[in-house]
Amino acid sequence: MFDYLIVGAGYSGSVLAERLASQLDKKVLIVERRNHIGGNAYDHYDAAGILVHRYGPHIFHTNSAQIFDYLSRFTEWRPYQHRVLASVDGQLVPIPINLDTVNRLYGTNFTSFELEKFFASVAERREPIRTSEDVVVNAVGRELYEKFFRGYTRKQWGLDPSELDASVTARVPTRTNRDDRYFTDTYQAMPLHGYTRMFERMLDHPNIKVMLNTDFREVKDIVPYRELIYTGPIDAFFDFRYGKLPYRSLTFEFETVDTPVFQPTGTVNYPNDYAYTRITEFKYLTGQEHTRTTIVREYPRAEGDPYYPVPRKENAELYRKYETLAAETRRVYFVGRLATYKYYNMDQCVGQALATFKKIEAATNGDMAKDS
Ligand code: FAD
Ligand code: UDP
User: Fold this and answer.
1) Were 26 and a residue from 3, 125, 170, 175 both cysteine, which residue would form a disulfide, CB within 3.0 to 4.6 Å?
2) Ligand approaching nearest to the C-alpha of 59
3) 187 belongs to a structural domain
4) Boundary residue ending a domain (170, 190, 225)
5) Cα 44 from chain centroid?
6) 85 with 259: CB under 8 angstroms?
7) Whether residues 14 and 138 fall in one domain
8) pLDDT at position 365, please?
9) Range of the structural domain that residue 149 is part of
10) Using CA atoms, how far apart are residues 370 and 199, in angstroms rounded to an integer?
11) What is the Å distance from ligand 1's center to 55 Cα?
């Protein structure tokens, strides 16, 4: 008998497995339908011997010392600050939009102070800010919105920014200084030996068994367990009772090129050209030295493996119906990006899993108090 059956070996499932096994001495079985652990953060060496991320570029960043310290038990780190250029009007310019972006694009020589005035003169006030269009147009005006955000968002989501919640484009700030880092979090680093190695260490505990190539459906009536932790898509768990929740997918096209360096920075975004949104060159992220280099192009898709929840009102309403069902389902915890339909970064998944562990721990201690 297992104390916990955990569905999915990504961050959400692995953090909970590790905590339950090491802190509460629980016996845990993780079932994972893919042939590897790590979920979408999985990395591996490709045929050329270059470390790549199978499900697209993953850059770790967080403001939480607690989350960073927790993961630091399972990995050492390589400091890395991600920088992104956008291909716009035949130039490669920094995104998030900053002082250099505008000066290069328009051939101006603005100071930060002048740029603030420029933004104020072109911005269209939106009150309240509801959509992803509102966020950007309100900050930098229509022209920069169209150059950097409209096309990219339509490609990535198959929706116009006006049809998406503000939270989507609000992930990308606007700056009036020259800071060209994609993220400004306190902790920005890559696991020194890769994500997969970190997950291996997390799951290396005698109380944890991992079954790969196994769908939850194949084992749910066979494996005896007390409680379930589910990190897959929530609509699938309930057999799509209220209909399908949209999850955006991607196809990844990897290419190894016979040159040590392919592009000038880790990621180049293509808001207005090509069917792909961006190209990432992994060696920038990993620091690996190699005579060749591997890149990945991301092609957005409506169908395929579920990667992104789609943040908009009607989807939130549908999710809430599933969430209500979930709350009524005893002895099952729904955790993670797919099961709680949240556009979470890796650190947020770790945070949510640690919070879920605290709840389970409190309930366990409560039961022990009742028993004694
Ligand atoms: P997942 O990693 O999706 O794990 C869920 C697991 O459950 C999967 O392995 C799946 O196979 C398994 N599963 C589902 N259903 C079943 C079933 N029925 N039976 C058995 N197994 C099942 N975050 C960042 O912080 N920085 C980044 O740079 C970043 N880049 C990203 C780029 C892309 C292209 C994508 C898609 C995501 C990115 N993320 C990034 C987000 C990050 O991938 C997620 O926050 C995190 O991996 C989610 O972890 P999870 O455990 O909740 O879900
Ligand atoms: N975005 C955009 N142009 C860009 C970068 C981002 O329009 O050059 C928008 C787009 O809608 C994207 C969202 O901002 O989906 C969030 O960007 P982020 O880089 O955080 O996306 P992720 O890495 O999660 O795919």
Assistant:
1) 3
2) 1
3) no
4) 170
5) 18
6) no
7) no
8) 84
9) 98-170
10) 35
11) 9
Are 152 and 7 in the same domain? no
Are 316 and 242 contained in the same domain? yes
Claim: this prediction has a pTM higher than 0.90: yes
CA distance 209 to 367: 25
Closest C-alpha residue for ligand 2 atom 14: 169
User: Which tens digit of pLDDT belongs to each residue from 112-162?
Assistant: 999 999 999 999 999 999 999 999 999 999 999 999 999 999 999 999 999
Q: Does any ligand 1 atom lie closer than 6 A to the CB of residue 41?
A: yes
Please answer whether residues 147 and 137 qualify as being in contact, where contact means their C-beta atoms are separated by less than 8 angstroms.
Answer: no
pLDDT at 347 over 80: yes
**144 lies in some domain:** yes
| Continuous H helices in 81-213 | 99-106, 112-122, 132-145, 151-157, 166-169, 195-203
Distances (CA, A) of 358 to 15, 62, 95, 201, 366: 12, 20, 38, 22, 12
Domain co-membership, 15 together with 109? no
CA distance 306 to 244: 12
Integer Cα distance of 72 and 198 in angstroms: 9
